[in-house]
Amino acid sequence: MRIGEIAELVGVTSRAIRHYHHIGLLPEPGRRANGYRVYGVRDAVVLARIRRLTEIGLGLDEVRDVLADAEGRELMEVLAELDADLARQESGIRERRRRLARLLDGPVSAEEPVSPALAELLGTVPATGSPTAAKDREHLVLLDTTGGGSELYAALAPLAEDPAVHALYERLDALDGAPVDDPRIPPLAADLAAVVPDGVLAAIPSDGPVMTGFGEALLDDYAPAQAEVVRRMMAALTARVAGRAAG
Region 50-59: what's the mean pLDDT? Predict the structure, then answer.
């Protein structure tokens, strides 16, 4: 993605991104031969976290501390101090305090804060060491920043608790380092598409904005064989939606 594309995706300005680069808050991405920066999903995830943290009132120095603390302990301390601050202010900050209270009720990770609806969904996901499951979680947090809805999260709830889904993640993890013609790819893509409920597809707006470059960046976040699985799965889901619309 170019800087304008990632700015539109996350909901910040290109000027803000350049400022974050200047102060070392957001690492500089690689550049093409023509000098243009090229951003991937990893950059979007970090930028989304910065936006979330600044929205609830943290200064950039506090955001830097939070991002540097992978365990989330620094975030808990900062949020507690901010909550005491907000308690002394006018009623306009009550919604922000409600979000903070939800965060302070449970363990805080480097991905948070997120919307209450997504926090509820993530709270039902069993602990797992799957790298691809962790990617999906980060993609959901990124989606939440760009306007993911409670209807979609509710539709995803059955998947979060389905043991079969965790077995599929293990199969996808096993393809890390495999060639793109690995025979395990087609059946896994079909199984992943089959497990997605119709409610999830119905909850995705058909007329939503298409972020140029985001699809390619998403696939680049996976190893080649895993990206091929995701590509085939999305094609199958697109065909399924088209078939239902035609019927």
Answer: 86
